[in-house]
Fold:
Amino acid sequence: MDKRQLLIEHPIGSASPVKMQDKSVKQFVSESSIHLPEGVNDSSILIKGPVQRANVENKNRRIYPRTILEREMKKLNGIIDTNGGILGELDHPDVAVVGLKSVPVVIRKLWWDEQNRDTMMAIAELLDPTINPYAGIAYSVLKAGLPLGISSRGLGSVMPQNDISIVQEDFEMLTFDLVSDPSTHGAFMRHFNANKISEHVDRNEVNNNIKDLSEDKVKNLLKSLSMPW
Structure:
């Protein structure tokens, strides 16, 4: 029987956004030596930013050792190379399995930051907000000029050490979800396409698509995605 617990990084509290300078995909890839999967280009709605940090206490009072995160990042990048990406949901569910009905984002690439080598970075792509209501909600946050919080989801155990929990070797990272308040400090994703965000989709299409969700569901999702500052 699997005794590992679901480890998600979404505490109560506030965090400061990490501001990112907009660059085209080609420029960013050239500077960072990152090769995006085929089909991902300047016409996609892309976001980038830090998603996890090793060897540092987060707001859930957990520490993820670098060796464990490095192993899991290699595994996830293998899945990305095979399948083209990893699906993430809008807000953390309380289960390990990713539910297709609430998926707005695809993780396209993971790597260690060159300046801060304990910071895991990512490039992700929003699904089409004109046909996906959850992507439409995430898109509306970007359209307002705000970043999207991102948070890891995984299975594993922790070992208490004073007032801190150390994530153990049985940890398995599953995906990253979009959230309003990530526990990893500065884990906010910003749009970085060369084209302006408003050029990607018809706003009326997005609004009409969001209406397909129940009124209560939309209110709850928008409330959860509202930034704390």
